[in-house]
From TrEMBL:
Keyword match Coiled coil: no
Full protein name: Magnesium transporter MgtE
Membrane-topology annotation of the record: Multi-pass membrane protein
Lineage, uppermost ranks: Bacteria, Bacillati, Actinomycetota, Actinomycetes, Micrococcales
Domain CBS residues, every copy: 140-202, 203-261
Transmembrane portions of the chain: 287-304, 310-327, 363-383, 389-415, 427-448
Record-linked CDD domains: CBS_pair_Mg_transporter
Subcellular location: Cell membrane; Membrane
Length: 450
């Protein structure tokens, strides 16, 4: 039985037990189910069903399942549980995971949950909450184990054993100097391989760190590209305040890429699994963009109205309108997607706008020459060589303009501090449609003498 079939059968069993109100059968089903499979099922249930299923989980498994859920689903689940259940789960979360959840909860509920924490957990959570919403400080863990340059490996191992239950990761330890500055890092592998009397300063590696105010996505990509297990997070005085772990970095990147892909498709990000999203939220995520793009599309209508006489004289020109605006939109979207990705990876900076403009103009020109040659040949053979020349030259011009505009739009967005994905595909398609038609009809008038 493959994984998909297994998950479908599990979901059907859970739904049947819920429909029959057979909690005994439901409990037996969950008892034989892995936490990962439970998470997949929960994300496809209604809020009420989710609360019932979650209450039947064993205490230890419940916390593991809760931590693996999307923060928005966690928020829905919190509303369906009793106060005592919520308090117990909230206390068991790591501080950074608590903050993910708090960011999704209503403002009135957050103080109540924080008040129920132990003094230590409230203090650690407060450290993370003190940083701006999109900063890496908001996503770091304040639970870690450190060592010092003058400690021995034996001293460090004793320190590690004493604090192992309180640390989110033990595979990389920051090495501090007397002022709590990060002097280096040492891995658990190096500690195990070294002799007990070895001084930490002799085996530590050079540390790369990020300021707590750094954008969380940039910090996460820095960590994953370097292949680190964790990355020290420091304050303005370069003192250690936390660690960004690999699993949190992947979570940040997944969250950001989900937002980008949604906005490139002309919808607002859902921030939750599809089946856990109410119908009205799906509508709201799409309707605003549809209205904006519908207004933008009136530009295309206006252009067609202006050149109505040209179309009336040579009706064959109307046949190529969908081809030309479709090619232009696709070319612009390709360029925008490529540059947006390069921006996210740090390969391109906002100041590189001139270099990007030059590169994308050349790429667009070459694409236009290839497509234009093909268009010229086919249209010339089928209709006339004058029409073929109009189509060929238009494809060259549209591809060059579309690639250039598509390439610099994300950079302009970054420069004015707007999400590049917002400036991407939907707006580029609208702009290129209108400008492409203007280019098309101007070339047709010039060549055909209209």
């Amino acid at each position: 039985m493959n994984q998909t079939t297994h998950q479908r059968e599990l979901e059907n069993r859970v739904l049947r037990a819920l429909a029959d109100e057979d909690l005994k059968d439901l409990g037996n089903t969950l008892q034989d189910t892995s936490p990962d499979d439970v998470v997949l099922v929960l994300e496809r249930l209604t809020a009420k069903q989710r609360a019932i299923v979650f209450r039947l989980l064993h205490k230890d498994e419940a916390l593991e399942v809760f931590e693996a859920l999307d923060p928005s689903v966690q928020s829905d689940l919190v509303r369906g549980l009793r106060d005592a259940e919520v308090a117990e789960i909230f206390e068991g979360l790591d501080p950074d995971d608590r903050v993910w959840l708090l960011d999704e909860l209503p403002a009135t509920l957050a103080p109540k949950l924080l008040h129920g924490l132990s003094e230590r957990e409230r203090r650690l959570t407060g450290v993370v909450l003190g940083y701006p919403q999109d900063s890496v400080g908001r996503r770091m863990t304040p639970e870690y184990v450190t060592t010092r340059m003058d400690y021995t490996v034996a001293d460090t191992m004793v320190r590690l054993r004493d604090r192992i239950d309180d640390a989110e990761t033990i595979y990389m330890l920051p090495v501090l100097d007397d002022a709590r500055h990060v002097a280096g890092v040492v891995s658990l592998r190096d500690l195990i391989a070294a002799e007990p009397h070895t001084i930490i300063a002799t085996i530590m590696s050079e540390a790369q760190s990020v300021p707590a105010s750094e954008d969380a996505e940039r910090a996460a990509r820095k960590l994953t590209e370097a292949g680190f297990v964790a990355l020290p997070v420091v304050d303005r005085e370069r003192r250690l305040v936390g660690l960004l772990t690999f699993d949190d970095a992947m979570r940040i990147i997944e969250h950001e890429e989900s937002e980008d892909s949604a906005r490139q498709g002309g919808v607002e990000p859902l921030r939750r699994p599809y089946f856990a999203t109410p119908i009205m939220q799906l509508v709201r995520s799409r309707v605003v963009w549809l209205l904006v793009l519908a207004v933008g599309a009136t530009l295309t209508v206006q252009v067609l109205d202006v050149f109505e006489g040209t179309l009336a004289e040579v009706t064959v020109l109307a046949l190529f309108v969908p081809l030309l605006i479709g090619t232009g939109g696709n070319t612009g979207n390709q360029a925008a997607t490529t540059v947006t990705r390069a921006l996210a990876l740090g390969d391109v900076k906002a100041r590189d706008i001139a270099r990007v403009l030059g590169r994308e103009a050349r790429v667009g020109l070459l694409l236009g020459l290839l497509l234009g040659t093909l268009g010229f040949t086919i249209a010339g053979l089928v209709y006339s060589w004058d029409i073929g020349l109009v189509i060929g030259l238009t494809l060259v011009a549209i591809c060059t303009v579309a690639a250039t505009i598509g390439g610099i739009m994300p950079l302009i967005a970054r420069w004015v501090k707007v999400d590049p994905a917002v400036f991407s595909n939907p707006f580029i398609s609208t702009f290129v449609d209108a400008s492409g038609l203007i280019i098309y009809f101007l070339i047709a008038r010039a060549i055909l003498g209209l």
